[in-house]
Specification:
With about 220 residues, the protein is of the alpha+beta class. The chain has helices spanning about 1-25, 30-40, 60-65, 105-115, 145-155, 190-195; strands at about 50-55, 80, 85-90, 95-100, 120, 135-140, 160-170, 180, 215. It contains six helices and nine strands, in the order ααβαβββαββαββαβ.
Length: about 220
């Protein structure tokens, strides 16, 4: 009997110890530090700017945020990372960027004040490497209106990237988004955001571009 009690006690100690170790070894995905760390792996964050971060934790806050078309895909648990000139919606549960876009300072304050009841934090400025200027032309290769603009909003959060030209591709039947890097510049951040590896050859039938990079948006981005 005593031996059985000792075995059970030992097993309980092992299980409790393992649970405690798991708790301390598992990162808090909702923390500001973790959020910014994961975002910095996906995109280059604004240099020396302090974002405000609000977490959507109630149905009321979600309803208030979704009242703005930009946040239609936001869910409870998402984080709004608001900079003075841009906003990023990040989903800690899947570690993915839901959407992001360029905004005015006035809109930045309006967005953040939309969810005043949500716990929020102001972070310390982040730093990022200086980027070589990259010009991008975006063409819509689908019948879905507005996709070129949406992709433009997504990639112009990257420091140094500008989109002087948007338009339509030669056909509306592209199933996948294509990135053509004709300048051989480093565009890894653009590739990360769009989930597509760049090529160096224009698709058949497409006119050449004067921009450093040409993006042809395909149907895989039709739900943006």
């Amino acid at each position: 009997m005593n031996k059985n009690i000792i075995r059970v006690a030992f097993l309980v100690i092992v299980l409790v110890g393992g649970f405690i170790a798991y708790q301390y070894s598992t990162p808090d995905k909702s923390s500001v530090e973790y959020t910014l760390k994961k975002l910095d792996e996906k995109i280059i964050l604004p240099n020396n700017q302090s974002p405000q971060i609000a977490r959507i934790e109630t149905e009321q806050a979600l309803a208030e945020v979704r009242a703005q078309p930009f946040f239609q895909n936001t869910m409870i648990g998402d984080s709004l990372v608001v900079y003075p000139d841009r906003v990023i919606v990040y989903r800690p549960s899947t570690e993915k960027i839901v959407t992001m876009g360029i905004i005015s300072p006035e809109k930045s304050a309006e967005i953040f004040n939309t969810v005043p009841s949500v716990p929020s934090e102001t972070t310390t400025p982040t730093s990022a490497a200086v980027q070589v200027p990259i010009t991008v032309e975006i063409r819509n290769g689908t019948a879905v209106k507005g996709l070129a603009k949406k992709v433009s909003d997504m990639i112009t959060v990257i420091s140094g990237v500008t989109v002087p030209t948007t338009g339509n591709a030669s056909t509306k039947t592209y199933t996948k988004t294509t990135i053509v890097n004709t300048s051989n510049k480093s565009i890894s951040q653009v590739e990360k955001i769009l989930g597509t590896t760049a090529v160096t050859t224009l698709p058949a039938g497409e006119k050449s571009s004067t921009a450093d990079v040409l993006i042809i948006v395909g149907a895989d981005k039709s739900t943006l």
